[in-house]
Design brief:
With 249 residues, this protein is α+β, with helices and mostly antiparallel strands. The protein has twelve helices and six strands. Helices cover 47% and strands 12% of the residues.
């Protein structure tokens, strides 16, 4: 799917407040790096320079003359390494499981912990001792991460399909799906409490987003065919979009 899947947005004052951003030198430097690495793209719209044939396009961006940004496909792939939940909201699962083994000795604990932190957002779950499993296509990323480094000799990676066995029991054992569902329900209650306060909408949105990010860091992003069409995580993103549309309209 092309980057047209993502909408251009203006980082206006409301969004700056919600994300606790300020357009200072540091923020501009970060944004410049994202643009340079093709993780985001920008579009500057100047109404006075648009030809008549482009008027329809200009109409999609109300404040002409400002700069708009959107996530690229490369940026989306990078995002999914931090928040795997979003991958199968957009893409289809290829049906392959990735199994990772890294038996790094205790004397190299710092190296092991560093690798584990870097793989935190890859949707990996502990299957057996030293074996981790994920439905996400992260083998290439892992190879690039360890190639030519001392971790390489401790890492093994496999791809396979599920042949038989109770997949539901596996998901519960590896990712503790029921506990995650409980956390989502607690999130809904927090959102309700936030929305009933007398705070300004920008402050409400900031809190709603903060709590959502916390649980997204825990969600392994399992595809619908595994967790089911009614999985509460899908309900959460739908509710979040509704809240955003109300608070930031």
């Amino acid at each position: 799917m092309s980057s047209s899947y993502f909408d251009f947005i203006e980082i206006d004052q409301r969004l700056q407040h919600v994300f606790d951003l300020a357009f200072n030198q540091k923020t501009r430097g970060t944004l410049s790096g994202l643009l340079k690495n093709l993780l985001v793209e920008k579009k500057e719209i100047n109404l006075s320079k648009q030809e008549t044939s482009n008027q329809k396009e200009v109409a999609n961006y109300l404040d002409a003359g400002k700069t708009y940004y959107r996530l690229t496909e490369k940026g989306y792939t990078s995002l999914c390494l931090e928040f795997p939940f979003f991958r199968y909201v957009k893409d289809q699962w290829d049906g392959a499981w990735r199994i990772i083994s890294y038996e790094i000795p205790e004397v190299k604990r710092e190296l092991r912990d560093k690798l584990r932190r870097e793989m935190r957002g890859w949707g990996l779950g502990p299957w057996h001792r030293s074996f981790w499993i994920t439905p996400h296509p992260i083998i290439g990323t892992l190879r690039d991460r360890v190639f030519g480094k001392q971790e390489e000799k401790y890492v093994q990676a496999f791809e396979s399909t599920h042949v038989f066995g109770n997949l539901g029991e596996l998901v519960e054992k590896v990712w503790q799906k029921s506990k995650l569902e409980k956390k989502y329900r607690e999130l809904f209650k927090k959102w309700h409490d936030i929305l009933t306060t007398e705070k300004r909408n920008e402050y409400k949105m900031q809190e709603v987003l903060s709590h959502y990010v916390d649980i997204l860091r825990e969600d392994p992003g399992l595809p619908q065919v595994i967790v089911g069409r009614r999985w509460i995580g899908f309900e959460a993103i739908s509710i979040f979009k509704q809240i955003k549309n109300i608070l930031l309209k």
